[in-house]
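Anyone opening a protein record will find just a pair of labelled lines. A complete record is shown below as an example:
=====
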Amino acid sequence: MLAQDRYAKILKMLNQEKSIKVSALTKLFNVSIDTVRRDLESLEKEGLLKRVYGGAVLEKTNSKELHFTERETKHIEEKKEIGEIACRYIKEGQSIAMDVSTTNHEIAKAMKNKFDKLTIITNSLLIAMEFCNKEKYNIILTGGLLRQEELCIVGNLAENFIKNFHIDTAFISMSGISINEELTDYGLGELQIKRKMMERAQQVIVVADSSKFDVVSLLKAASFDEIDAIITDSKLNKKVLDKYKEFGIEITNE
């Protein structure tokens, strides 16, 4: 069996089972342990799996959320790139919902330089403040409970408030995107806000930089069939991009 055939088989098995053992692969392919280890090393270099003791797993798992100020300085160029792409999904005069995230903050910075009149619905204090000097923008900040560490509003009041609006496009951030677990994130309070924005939007666009792919975060946020597209950056590995597109997921990264 050729190496490329083994790679395809390994990835198919991982998509079904999430983890696989070296010993099982040596028996399946009738090859040496060293050959299997080289196969797994090659696939890991392509960002398609993660090697662990005795085998490999499909996704990395992030169980700890970084503080907002820490996240704000990470992958900044990628987030700016996402901001420019996101503006192509917006038309003058539309209503746009944006949940709290450092990626959406960069989208907001790009939007204010490209559009004269928009309605912005957000639970993020920083995003709302970003548009303060845009006189023709309608800025709608949800009421509710202030979560200080994220500078955002959460709670039942905020969730019920969002129900009042008809939203053209919602930009929703995610901390993890994977084939098996689909769209995942942190924070129950923020998660409920995301859900309400998605429910009220005609178009739902997930925004996430390339480091979020093949990653599973703490909470299941949504399924792929609940969204219209994903915007990421040009650093996403082509093989990873192709893998998701094969599952029928629309991804834009350029």
In short: The chain has two domains: 3-58, 68-252. The longest strand covers residues 167-173.
